[in-house]
Amino acid sequence: xxxxxxxxxxxxxxxxxxxxxxxxLGVMRWSVTLPQPGFGQYAVALSDPLxxxxxxxxxxxxxxxxxISVVLAYAITLVWVRGAxxxxxxxxxxxxxxxxxSVLTRAFGWLALLSxxxxxxxxxxxxxxxxxxxxxxxxxxxxxxGMVHFLVPFAVFPLASAMRSVDERVLLAARGMGASRARIFxxxxxxxxxxxxxxxxxxxxxxxxxxxxxxxxLGGGRSVMVAExxxxxxxxxxxxxxxxxxxxxxxxxxxxxxxxxxKYAKGSGK
Amino acid sequence: xxxxxxxxxxxxxxxxxxxxxxxxxxxxxGKTTFLMILSGFxxxxxxxxxxxxxxxxxxPPEARGFGMVFQGYALFPHMTVEDNIAFPLKVQGRSxxxxxxxxxQMVEMVGLGGHGHKRPAGLSGGQQQRVALARAxxxxxxxxxxxxxxxxxxxxxxxxxxxxxxxxxQETGTTFVFVTHDQEEALALSSRIAIFEKGTLQxxxxxREVYERPANRFVAEFLGDVNILPVKDSRIEGRAIRxxxxxxxxxxxxxxxxxLALSEPAExxxxxxxxxxxxxxxxxxxxxxxxxxxxxxxxxxxxxRLPEGLAPGAGVWTTWEPSRGFLL
Lengths: 270, 328
Fold this sequence. Notes:
Chain A is an all-alpha fold. Chain A has helices spanning 3-33, 40-45, 49-82, 85-96, 103-114, 119-126, 140-164, 168-176, 181-192, 194-209, 213-218, 226-236, 240-267.
């Protein structure tokens, strides 16, 4: 890299260092100094059933959200990239519009739809589909719905770039050899886009781990995820040390995950 | 007889079993469209396509059972060489023992022994080409369609692959229909060449006939160099000339059929000219001449038959056998 290019990215590096790295170093310091010096808070974090339970729930919800988001995004992207021109335009709008709506607005929107006296339950009751309101929100279901809704558009882009780079002639070749549509899809198209699937999965999973607003609103305090737990430790109780230790564990976990996947990706030549 | 077909602008062609037909023409001439119609990936707006007397105009490509080698090879990048070749066999539902046997056989036939476990990205262009050929021939299709298969290869490799292609064609006895814009390739490989221009078929004939007896001026000029001289009352530039049989106001002669003399020959066709340029090409030499009326001629002569001391500016005579020319 030449000197002039370093100069170009320098402002961003300075900003990142000032806004993220320095504060995070401060958080790391809290984790080993509050309430007294030592690694006691890490021991608590890794043995407290409440903390472990929240971490497990977070991983579980995020895994489900990731699988659902990537599968839905794959279908949408397929239509977006390979559909008729008009369809493409409609899909493109559907992918872009969510980016302009804040996460808070969307969470409350889902609340209005899913709550006991929300649109879905009232409509279903009026139509006689079910008598008692279904609990669609303030539980894991609501959290998953809200998170998937937020994350699908993010999964679309790596998938789209992978699908666009598929050589049409390879698909034609498979067809010319007599392969059925299902065989072409599963044995040719999907394997050829696995780099995109991999990228989308990683992006969505890492992104979902840190979700705060959506689980806080749609989980209604009943399905607390790790970001909310950290917030509770730091803002609602004097457990700064424990909150900091969980933060560091979370960062380390994501770092290890990224490291491993990078290594795997390099190994498989992608 | 393999098929009879009418499409593009009024094209009718019958290709015999085991033939090697080349579709040759400049880009945009319709040759690739014609191949795509044969393959079934494009449908003709009118016309019919039959195979062994069976109607197959409406048959989708997956049901035709033709082999196809695409431009750029279209190999499955995520599969090994062996898996690529096995793919069409698995589609046919053959037993795994049968698939393995056939794959091994094909890998040997195209000379890729030892490369079976590599992915396409790890192969050279020529090797990828061989995989594409093996994959397309693995299930013994009655017809193999090839869309400019050598366009990505360098010249030396092209020559090698052409020999290989001829050998495989003879070994398998499959009917080959081959699209190219390379004239030499077409002449070297084909049993017949179909010349396309602006969506119409200009000529369909064996290579020698297409080259030496082109149907029209387009074919004559498209296939190699040609000298074209206007003829009036059996005279060219005022000199009486013995003409070949045929009709036309122009005499066309290939550069390699024209000779050179330093003085007026006693008999035979000859025209006085001035040597304007001389390009040494090793075995041959390329000469540029200008006739008295200013027409430019090109001659290809074996270097060993070139008169000593010939230099640009010299006054010369160009000669040719009457039977070697053709009228257009």
